[in-house]
Amino acid sequence: MDRFDDIPETALRWHSEGKGAALATVVQTWGSAPRRVGSQLAISGAGEIAGSVSGGCVEGAVVAEALDAIEESKPVMLEYGVSDDDAFAVGLACGGTIRVLVEPVGAVMPVPVLEELVAARAAREPVAYVTGMQTKQRLDRQGHEARFRMDRSGFEEDGETFVGIHNPPLRLIIVGAVHIAQALVPMARIAGYDPLLIDPRDSFASEDRFSGETILNDWPDEGVQAYGLDTRTALVLLTHDPKLDDPALEQALASEVFYIGALGSTRTHARRVERLTAKGFTADQIARIHGPVGLDIGAAGPAEIAVSILAQMTDVLRKAT
What we know:
6-stranded parallel beta sheet, 11 helices, 5-stranded antiparallel beta sheet, Rossmann fold
């Protein structure tokens, strides 16, 4: 997915090539800062850059400080105020203040830790990079549940330990290339999801109907199994056809997907519950299904139903306990 940044990967590559590298991370913001906490900029010893920490306002100053940090093999904490004029230039109504932590690779950020981070990102494994001016760098795979759910990097209560969240990109698997899917796919992409359509019916799942999208003309259970299901994946079932929906649904109930939604009336969902109960699924497992799918906003057509589905997905992702 092209939204998945490669900033840590680039820093590791530059270091491996012998150029030297540093990672600059936004660790705190006040006001209308251009980039959110956790945003990163990679800087090579040759002055190459990847990513951003301010949308262009202070990158030049950060690069200069990073080159010094690489030369001196030490971390540095920077603080910048973004003026209203500079903020306006990058599309903001007003300015703010940011703090940026610069860590040279090798001298400060251990290479094995960076390598482990890159490997975890490639494997779609959520990890937290823990660091700070007085903190030994490490990766955490447990704890920080609220931060992972909210994609929220930040300082811990001690004000010294920074937790940088590295979540895999969100994915949306849609079973059923129906009219609602034609509205849901572009909306989901705008919201940051990487959508996949699964439908064995060529007349539905066609390039003409979903130009440029990833389409699998497989049976849903096979497609879901091949694509994989994890904690950053949502599954939406739109076919109304049990022989298509149910096999994928059974795969999802045995996984850790964060959202499962199934189209259909209350009566249709009741029959769905009966079928799944007969197959041995527990009440708690079945309760994970949002059916009828979407928030009850009085949606009247395919586009509005798509809005209700995306809203419910967001609600579950951000508010789940």
